[in-house]
Design a protein that fits this description.
This protein is an alpha+beta fold and 500 residues long. It has helices spanning 48-66, 108-115, 124-127, 136-146, 150-156, 164-172, 185-188, 203-209, 245-252, 311-319, 330-335, 374-400, 417-427, 439-452, 458-464, 477-494, and strands at 4-10, 14-20, 26-33, 45-46, 73-80, 86-89, 99-100, 159-162, 182-184, 194-195, 200-201, 218-220, 223-228, 238-244, 261-265, 269-276, 287-292, 300-307, 344-346, 364-366, 407-410, 431-434, 467-471. A 7-stranded mixed sheet has the order 17-18-16-15-21-22-23. The chain has a 6-stranded mixed sheet with strand order 3-2-1-5-14-13, sandwiched between helices. It is globular and about 60 Å long. A hairpin with a 3-residue loop joins strand 15 (261-265) and strand 16 (269-276).
């Protein structure tokens, strides 16, 4: 059998290709950022052709770095930013418009249109999701209603809908020359168009949103042989794993038993808890989602707390305010002051996600005095991530009745030790960072490797997990309570900024 497994990690800000060995160690990696297009306030778009070109480039670069031919890969796994929505022509392969990114808020009026009858939770029992700008169904409906010719092409099957997994899988397996139009169960569960009970497209949901079935991909398991890549530097490698990025991180952290949880710190942050083979419906503002499906086995479900803006807040300080030149500068700048100077940043750039689900909220900076400096802004930005994760943990404990005893972490921000310590302080439990922090790509690799026997079973995956560092809480409960009281006050200040 070939010696390695590959993974394509198509994220919100960049695309990466990572090659892993059997111990789950990184052999080679390549990464390239793509543009964040913001044509109007609240709108966020990506150029799908740019992302496709970047995917080919990083795959070639990763193979070259490792001095490997494609034949050295036993399989490839694919993981992707979820909910980001596009529609493309099946004959030309050209997108009908830019992709609408998961954090894009242009569908706010559609949310209110559908919530007018039955409220925002009217579809939660079937789909696990509240009506929100976050999910794909309303983004697709916006395209159908606003892009000339889109509805007619979608209804005839001339145009194909997909999230980024579908777009890349179709192109990499042949595109207009017989490419596979597929989406795995985890990505499909984020569209708001499937029933959690059946894991299939739901006719009632399609009718509610007036979505033509002809444009939808085939729903497939997360881990199974899908087909062979036919284009680009990975041509000839079998595609055997597809997972939405947060579910991939859950698998990469080997949270494969009920009650096991992880948090990914990226552009946004996402806390997922495995709840087993039965969905748990949230009463505290969390999402019920499909965690993974391996082969013909039963799907596993998860509770999820989705936070829209965490790492993106650091990017905003860098790119919009020019307070820092690189993201890495934020930690020493934040550490140059003893505390936040009573400055709190609520990054509700496109509303608040879990557990509030408030589309009318917008970002606020609270507690400003003449004392505040750019260092206090830097510290407040990092602390905003920890506060938002604390809010989600409280909701998850209420829903699951399982107290969190440790938090497994991954994602780009986990290298920020100031943040990790403050996170432990805000949660009052240890925070653990694995030795292999690329858990999102690793989860996709695990799904692909299991499908071809590269790894025999999940026991082998668990054996790969090793600890890098643990942060234990050091803050006393009274100080923690004071921080959280001020944070909650700042959150309330962000509500109802947009008139609906």
């Amino acid at each position: 059998m070939p010696s390695y497994i590959g993974a394509i990690d198509q994220g919100t800000t960049s695309t990466r290709c990572i090659i892993f060995d059997q111990r789950g160690r990184v052999v080679a990696m390549a990464q390239k950022e793509h543009r964040q297009l913001t044509p109007k306030p609240g709108w966020v778009e990506h150029d799908p052709m740019e992302i496709l070109a970047n995917t080919h480039e990083v795959a070639a670069t990763a193979l070259a770095k490792a001095n490997l031919p494609p034949g050295s890969l036993a399989a490839i796994g694919l993981t992707n930013q979820r909910e980001t929505t596009l529609l493309w022509n099946r004959r030309t392969g050209q997108p009908l418009c830019n992709a609408l990114v998961w954090m894009d808020a242009r569908t706010e009026r559609l949310v209110h249109r559908f919530a007018a009858t039955g409220g925002k939770d009217r579809f939660r029992a079937k789909t696990g999701l509240p009506l929100a700008t976050y999910f794909s169904a309303l983004k697709l409906l916006w395209i159908l209603e606003n892009v000339p010719g889109a509805r007619a092409q979608a209804a005839s099957g001339e145009a194909l809908f997909g999230t980024m997994d579908s777009w890349l899988a179709w192109n990499l397996t042949g595109g207009a020359q017989g490419g596979l139009h597929i989406s795995d169960v985890t990505n499909a569960s984020r569209t708001m168009l499937i029933s959690l009970a059946t894991c299939n497209w739901d006719e009632e949901m399609l009718a509610h949103f007036n979505i033509p079935r002809a444009c939808l991909p085939q729903i497939v398991p997360s881990s199974t042989p899908h087909g062979t890549l036919k284009t680009g530097p990975l041509a000839g490698v079998p595609l055997c794993g597809i997972l939405g990025d947060q579910q991939a991180a859950l698998v990469g952290q080997t949270c494969l038993a009920p009650g096991e949880a992880k948090n990914t710190y990226g552009t946004g942050s996402f806390l997922l808890m495995n709840t087993g083979t039965e969905p748990v419906h949230s009463k505290a503002g969390l999402l019920t989602t499909i965690a993974y499906q391996f082969g013909s086995g039963r799907p596993h479900y998860a509770l999820e707390g989705a936070i829209a803006i965490t790492g993106a807040l650091v990017q905003w300080l860098r790119d919009n305010l020019n307070l820092i030149a690189t993201a890495a500068e934020i930690e020493p700048l934040a550490a140059s002051v003893a505390d936040n100077g009573d400055v709190y940043i609520v990054p509700a750039f496109s509303g608040l996600y879990a557990p509030y689900w408030n589309d009318s909220a917008r970002g606020v900076i609270a507690g400003l005095t003449r004392y505040a400096t750019r260092a206090h802004f830097a510290r407040a930005a990092l602390e905003a991530t920890a506060y938002q994760v604390r809010d989600v943990v409280e909701a998850m404990e209420a829903d699951s009745a399982i107290p969190l005893t440790v938090l497994k972490t991954d994602g780009g921000m986990v290298m920020n030790e100031l943040l990790m310590q403050f996170q432990a302080d805000m949660l009052g439990v240890p925070v653990m960072r694995p030795a292999i922090s690329e858990t999102t790509a690793l989860g996709a690799a695990y799904a692909a490797g299991l499908a071809v026997g590269y790894w025999r079973d999940i026991g082998e995956l668990r054996a790969n997990w090793t600890l890098d560092k643990t942060w234990s809480p050091r803050m006393d409960s009274a100080q923690r309570a004071g921080y959280l009281k001020s944070w909650k006050k700042a959150v309330r200040r962000s509500f109802d900024w947009v008139d609906t």
